[in-house]
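Service request form, structural biology core

Requester: graduate student, group of Dr. S.
Request type: structure prediction, single chain
Budget code: on file
Notes: please return the result as structure tokens.

Sequence provided:
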Amino acid sequence: MKLTKKTTMVLSFTLGAMLLATTAIADIAAKSGYDQLKDALKFTAAQCSDNLKSFTMDISYDVKDNGKTLSFMNQTEKCDRTKTAREETTSEQTINGNNYSRQTYFDKATYIRLSNDDPTYYVTEYTQERKDMAFSNPFKENNADDAEKIADAIVGNLKDNVVVTENPDGSKVLSGSLTEVQIPSLINALASFEMKQQFNGQQDNNLPHLSKDVFVKTIDGTAKINKDGVMESILGSAVVSGKDEQGTVHAITIEVLAKLTNINSTVVTKPDLSGKKVVKNVIKNENSGPEISNPQEFMGKFKNDILITKDGKFVKVGERIIEITQIDQTSATGRYYEVYKTGFDQYATTKRDFSFTATKSKDKNSPEYKFRTDAGINEAFFLDEHAGKIYLNESTTFSEGGIIFDSTFSPDLE
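Core staff response, request fulfilled:
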């Protein structure tokens, strides 16, 4: 996922809700079963945010093409509400084949991060305690009711295809499946659009370019709820079929699993930094802005491609570059400029090249560095330490003349 700066725990529960609802895995709930499913999700989220002392959540997903793994992610979250502490371990392979792993630790006064490509522990210390960092209930977010209504509308009559099994100990299993003839055209249209966007031929050459006959072939789902009403696991899988430009059929399998374990017995351990390479930063209070443990990581060039469409394909005509020459927790200076390839000069008529001084927002809910462009327009960018990218907050991703701009800037490592 560019994602908002929510905790991964919040995303996990939101993913579970939308996975079971919007992708038709909610066919595992007839009206009463569907309501039981939503009730279990809401109850589990409320327990994690308000009542459980500690818990461990494991989340994983796997994407395969005809049985070959394209990308995966495994993540373990440990939360201790009594200490207001959380630790997270993540390993993933992105769809372009890059591998990442990282460890993070949070509590009221500390944020610690370690990644696989850097032996340095980046530590942010807060002189003023922050608010609860352990878990936030996604169903209390401002847009939760609207999301639920949208999910209900998309699910529609699929609620009638439920299988609910009640066990003697009071636990329940909700399970079900759909075949291609049962899947509504709206869900197929959404899935077709999304898969064509993701598998569009611009990524690694080993990935398929799905261009036609894309449809959802099967969907299966299972949710296990313990006798106390807490959802212990949720598993969803879908197979999407599509053809590439050569007519080869690809079966894209997507599987997502979330498990809740070690309830009230999870132990969260703060990393021992003795003898380790440490870069430390101190923030006076949480109003100083979101934790960016080491802004100096972003010194240097970040770029992305400028594209056009020609003969039904994307063509690179140049690059946009953000060069950071100075940055800290309060400000940044640098240069924005565009470089066009030979033969595409006609697209360079609006080419921009200017220096800027950006000021870090003092709003604790804003991760932005704000600046003014050469045209006097207020713009902003923010940093993503986990992904190692810069995101430019622009009003549009398209310019006149058919040029396509991307707002995500990646490090120039050449």
